[in-house]
Amino acid sequence: MTSASLAVLTGLIAWTLALLVLMEVLRSRLVLLGRVASNAFTPDNANLSPFMQRLARAHANCLEGLPIFGGLLVVAIVGGRSGVTDPLAWWLLAARIAQSSIHLASTRVWAVNARFTAFAVQMAIAVYWTVLLLRG
Predict the structure, then answer these.
(1) Which one, of 64, 73, 49, lies nearest residue 100 by Cα?
(2) What gap in Å lies between CA 43 and CA 60, rounded to an integer?
């Protein structure tokens, strides 16, 4: 990898993929054990355990954020301005992984507050990058 921004962009994609793979492994297990018919899954896993529902939402959160956070990284990389995003890139990825991990762990008030804090960090970094990238 030539820059932190490129590595983190790959990391954001890899984390999103890892959540998807986990969900599909767990779904496959349910089908193979005969607990759920292969055509009975809903996109939000509403008919499955609370953990599976949180996993679906955590994965959806990653998909929702990827165009914004990943897009800013792409703009910086393609524009030769990864110097703008490199210093905070790893913090963005850490906050994304923390948000998803907390989401998977609990929906208690402390967890929701911690999850929001991790998301707020990502938003603050994205706003900061946007301002710097628009300044040219």
Answers:
(1) 64
(2) 10
Task: Provide the strand spans (E) within 44-133.
Answer: none
Instruction: Kindly give the confidence (pLDDT) of every residue in the chain, 136 residues in length, as a single tens digit, with 9 standing for 90 and above.
Output: 589 999 999 999 999 999 999 999 999 999 999 999 999 999 999 999 999 999 999 999 999 999 999 999 999 999 999 999 999 999 999 999 999 999 999 999 999 999 999 999 999 999 999 999 999 7
Neighbours of 16 (CB within 10 A): 21
Q: Which residue has the tokens 């994609």?
A: 13
Look at the chain and count its residues: 136
Task: Look up residue 69 and give its DSSP letter.
Answer: I
Axis crossing angle, helix 50-65 with helix 4-32, rounded to the nearest 10: 150
Residue 19 · residue 58 · CB < 8 Å: yes
What tokens does 45 get?
């896993």
Helix-helix angle 82-105:50-65, to 10 degrees: 170
